[in-house]
């Protein structure tokens, strides 16, 4: 996997691009946390579930169908998230589904069971440019961990920063300026 902190970068970039009117902060926050959920499968790994099993690391929890079901369920709280159900659904699906897709660009471990339950095949992207993150915390705080962070900065954070910057700029350019003061007071100093 990329490090756990890198997965929320995708919903964050979508949020910056579309702005708080479409994606309110509460929904954005839930999306960022939800983007980390698929890696809960490491708990099974620590309790003896084999990495390569369907329920192993990068298996079922990383599939697009589980991302969709989780998004549909989490979106039931749409009123608290201050959006409509459809907006909550597609944003949370992108947030969670992007996790497995990002993992597929890493250069280690097994592939990702993106198509489960239709297929248990593990997939990798054609370009595996992201250094895979070590699973243990101890191993992460090492030279290897530093290399992983550098690789994620170049291949994930930087492109997303550009997308969010350009997207946010276009959105602001397209947003009409605020109308005249509704109270009718002259708006001049
Ligand atoms: Zn993962």
String of helices and strands:
HHHHHHHH
Mind summarizing the main beta sheet? Answer: none
Derived from helix and strand composition plus strand pairing, the structural class reads mainly alpha
| Bound ligands, named by name, code or SMILES | zinc ion
Shape: globular
Descriptive account of the structure:
The chain has 189 residues and is mainly α. The protein has one domain. Helix content is 50%, strand content 0%. It is built from eight helices and no strands. The protein has helices at 9-18, 25-34, 42-46, 64-74, 78-81, 85-103, 137-140, 143-174. The protein is globular, with a radius of gyration of 20 Å. The N and C termini lie far apart (56 Å). Bound molecules: zinc ion. Zinc ion (ZN) is lined by residues 1, 38-39, 58, 62, 99, 103. Zinc ion is lined by residues 1, 38-39, 58, 62, 99, 103.
